[in-house]
Amino acid sequence: SGYNFEIIVIDDGSPDGTQEVAEQLVKIYGSDKIVMMEIISILFSLGTAYIHGMKHATGNFIVIMDADLSHHVRLYFIKQKEGNFDIVSGTRYKGNGGVYGWDLKRKLISRGANFLTQVLLRPGASDLTGSFRLYKKEVLQKLMEKCVSKGYVFQMEMIVRARQLGYTIGEVPISFVDRVYGESKLGGNEIVSFLKGLLTLFATT
Question: Relative to the CA of 22, which of 30, 52, 143, 202 has its CA 20 to 30 Å away?
Fold first, then answer.
């Protein structure tokens, strides 16, 4: 790739084989390139995964992504260099972006969440629930200090706080292809938590 990189794998002890795959990658690429972290805690969440990952990140940029091969990294670095953006976010709802493999229910949930967020918060970005982003390391650290959400609403709060702090956000249209293996953890509890977080941000920002 031409980049000096490291991959930090955060696993919550899930039974999907993540840890075994990471251990195999360590054997191939070395422990200086693949860092495996297993976090066993009832308080594990997206936010805590970010915190633990940042503690071990040594680069100037941090790319946050799912480990199910739904995303591609290269375009993010190209976009960042174009505008020296503080954050580059993937968007399924702009340009030639899109979603493939989701049923109607999942599409409605995602569209509805983004529509409500746009109406209530005016975040200045078109996809607030996506999990594929590039951050300057120092920007991510500042945002983590400001954010209070821990679940799925965390992604939305990161962009809202970034807008508040005056950080620049670039967007890259992505074609999101649903995972081939495993299942999404999105359920009723996460949806309720998202709505509560949305209303909290609306009342406090």
Answer: 143
